[in-house]
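I have been asked to look over a protein record a colleague put together. Thanks in advance; the entry in question is below.
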Amino acid sequence: MLKIRLARGGAKKRPYYSIVVADSRSPRDGRFIEKVGAYNPLLKRDDPTRVTLKVERIQEWIKKGAQPTDRVARFLSVEGLAEWQAGNNPKKAEPGRKAKERAEERAQREADRLAAEESAKAEAAAAAAAASEAPVEDAVAEEAPAEDAQAEA
């Protein structure tokens, strides 16, 4: 399948793109069939030389079945050669399947931890209640032998 796409050129941090017709299987900056324009993103948006197109050649390639990529379709829509519609992907920000599974596991571990803390607090409260009752009985039991010891003496 033929694509009308961008091929990156220029130095590091100084991009310059050629608009080329290439086979979709060839590398981005690799072999292409024909150069049909240029795009310099460093120029201002209103600069007329920011995007240069060979309109006639692009029309011929589109008639032959070449498909423009999304970015090139934007440029062509300004010239009236192709229609470009903004994509709408509402699931883009939604996490993937594995991320959802990890989130569920994390939530389950957190719920288990909270349940364990609640049960530990309940046990501690029950033990504290039992401990507060036990010293009263122990004190009564301790007083009785002390009285017995005094009576014997």
About this structure: Residues 97-152 form the longest helix (56 residues).
